[in-house]
Amino acid sequence: MNKMRLVYIYHSGFVVEAEGFSILIDYFKDTNPDPAKGIVRGELLKRPGTLYVLASHFHPDHFNPDVLKWKEEKDDIKYILSTDILKRRRAKAEDALYMRKGDIYQDERLTIRTFGSTDVGISFLIETQGQRIFHAGDLNNWHWKDESTPQEVAEAEGNYLRELDIIARYTRAMDLVMFPVDPRIGTDFMRGAQQFIGRIKTDVFVPMHFWGHPEKVLPFGPYAEAEGCRYIVPSAPGERIDL
Asked: Is 5-242 assigned to CATH 3.60.15.10?
């Protein structure tokens, strides 16, 4: 198996780099405001091989329409976007391949299966070089226990567990998972992540959606390690993790 590397861009944005191709997921902004110093514009668009650009939904912290201009700089680029981005007119029909929950994209390098979300759009399971790589998008147990009624909490949890069941029916093990661990949720901010790794054996778990506060998601470490995960918190944009 060829070596792969994960590069943290910002928020929920990551690049998976492999021999001959790269996968950029949920780009929102680059690692540096100076284009020459940013990893995407400074390095990734110049990297040999195909660049797959994936976006899980239209929210501006997960999809930046600027990505569509990159085809002017790089010939070998494929856009794979959630259908809600088209419906919300953030992109045109000819700009990308659009996927909804339950779709499959396949070529000679990888297979992408889409699962659901508990917010908008989809989540991605990428299978390549014998690895299963999951990017949750905005799939999470989104409930604000401190502000919600018990009924609202139960409804949010039920919606999330139904989506988790669908994923677990397809696979009970993943090599790399990028998943929201968002401290803004309050008391139960780790609950969705705990439920995920409790159902699906995860080798490497990388939190995301922590809004530039990596120190606030460190408490999830002991839970992840107790489930046999290698827990890696990206401390700064541009951090590289060898897989």
From this structure: yes
